[in-house]
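To the team - thiamine diphosphate complex, inputs and output below.
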Amino acid sequence: MSFDYDKYIRPGKLPHIWCPGCGHGIVMKGLIRAIDTLGLEKNNTAIVSGIGCASRLPGYLDFCTLHTAHGRAAAFATGVKMAKPEMNVILVGGDGDGTAIGGNHFIHACRRNIDMTYIIMNNNIYGMTGGQFSPCTPTGAKASTTVYGNPDPAFDVAKLAIGAGATFVARGTAYHATQIDKLIVEAVQHKGFSVVEILDDCPTTYGRRNKFKSVIEMMNRLKDVAVPVKAAEKMTAEQLEGKILTGVLYKEERPNYTDEYAKVIERAKK
Amino acid sequence: MAKKVAFLQGNEAAAQGALYAGCTFFGGYPITPSTEVAEVLSIELPKIGGKFIQMEDEIGAMASVIGASLTGAKVLTATSGPGLSLKQELIGYACIAETPVVIVNVMRGGPSTGMPTGPSQSDVMCAKWGTHGDHPAICLVPASVQELFEETVRAFNLAEKYRTPVMVMPDEIVAHMRERIVFPEPGEMEVINRTAPSVSPAEYKPYDTKFGDVPPLAAFGSDYRFHVTGLNKAEDGFPTTKAALVQAEEERQVRKVEANVDDIVTFEEYELADAEVVVVAYGSTSRSARFAVNEARKQGIKAGLFRIKTFWPFPDKQIAAIAGKAKAIITPEMNLGMCTQEVQRCAQGKASVSGIFRVDGEPINPGQILEKIKEVK
Ligand SMILES: Cc1ncc(C[n+]2csc(CCOP(=O)(O)OP(=O)(O)O)c2C)c(N)n1
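Output:
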């Protein structure tokens, strides 16, 4: 029997705002399947986002949903999780939202190792505002504000997360749709701050400008650049040139923030 | 039984007031001269199972308190000038999402980094106009340590009652002075909790106008699920761009405060019955003003004091009435005329309005006010 997504979609809230060919919907379906696998209780799960196309995702889902301000999802979610540690908190958003305006909150959520999962949909561009470059736009690429080619170096979201102290970091792509839910399941099960970067596509504002002839071509690029970490172990540096590792990139056990704060409460009460 | 008495600093009293009101969550970022509020709560909150978090900046602090408030907690953040500027976008978010939060903003010199330990009263316009868009504004300006305690309790009550951010804005002098404070017994001061939904989860809408201008607010993690956004929204909380709906919602959000000014606006009248010269003052400045009024009376001048306790909504009606009776109004303030403008607006030319303005980090002393009283009488 096919999977029943409707169980988790809010009645009357579709159609979504995403353009044809956008990968955000694939991520949403992956998230739904993950939540179903995990058996997360709707009332006890908060889905928090910032602003951007990707950040519209929570509105479609039947949970406690919080669509915040641009870049601030991690900080709002920190308040939710601190105040009610028993809640499952999942963040979703774009690369611009998470690593530009939200960069500070992002790295500090990683550092605190607060037990939440952050899904970053990296389409290499600011979609909602019409295709300006983001910190994840590749150097040399075209955006509406880099028509001569992007001079900025790009962030590697996963490395950024690892460097900042996230204790679970994974990467998938919108092409590898069935892998998305598996990564999210593992991320949510991980006790601590987990980051799942999904390489995504924006045919409307990135694809057209950067000479991708079709959505299929964009999807094929995701297929071609992705190399599972296991497979990469057997590859040479030359073979790995221009490739992007996917799968679980980092995993570490470290005390998480709300557990540590519970100890603070214990000490204070003595 | 004798009441508990203490010798406290203003900021410490604000923290104690928050606890009295039932605050269980503080998110903040340190900035002088507000830091003691955070320091006290970092000690006291965990003792009662509450949460204290020092965020990475003021924007994060503001975001964290809104997030926590949505889980049903009573929340506080404390800051000062530059921090208030950073919080502004999210103060607007709390307005449109109708989330109760209390912000203690200790006014220091500005703009920008200004004078970190110099007193000022120059954030009063920021409290009303700082965030973009039309929105309600409630701002309380206590003048003593006792009042900073009581007004913080009242700020929580107003925030919960009207589902909106409320600011408590002591100037640095009030926040840092030490005074005797008498703690109210539990139950002695009113403590208001937000109205919980009376409908079933299936019927619940977070902005359901059927329940009046301030709809009941459920909590994340309870039996109720709902959507919260900073976009213009319909009564179910989901974004809308329908013109009539947006207009009606915006008007309701402002109306819930404007239509209740008599419940919100507080003030103190001193020697006003026959006053020909009225000093309109707030915060620490009002204490100098009272002294000056007493001196003037001794010298046979009919002077009086109108002390503003609630800056927003502004006491329009009361100031207009004073202007209709008195000959002259004097507005001493530690800025270059912010309150004065408001008083002029209310006075509509019926009385002369003149200010005493200081932005040099020095308090306005009674002598200065007395001199002005003599000049305009
Ligand atoms: C304070 C603030 N600055 C700028 C914006 C405008 N803005 C809205 S969405 C967006 C970029 C979104 O890009 P991204 O996060 O990558 O998500 P996408 O739309 O590509 O899914 C920007 C700059 C805003 N809403 N708020």
